[in-house]
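This part of the workshop introduces the protein records we will be handling. An example says more than a description, so a record of this kind follows:
>
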Amino acid sequence: MALSGMRGLSVFISDIRNCQNKEQERLRVDKELGNIRTRFKSEKVRVFIFSIIFYCYNLIIFFIYLDNFNLYLITLITEKFLSEV
């Protein structure tokens, strides 16, 4: 089931393996790069990828902030505990 979505990749790999020389390999790779470029020229795809990158970036920033906040709370509680002892 998982391999059915990778059919294009397996065909590409088999095409590369069946090439007789480096020039044929280069032509096949260039053809596939052209296919990838045409699929990513769509505005919807670019906006979707940008939104995923933006979401991941904000998630990373949030976790960094949360980690720093936890460190601040730990030091605050430790200082309060040490001052009472």
Remarks:
- The chain has one domain: 20-84.
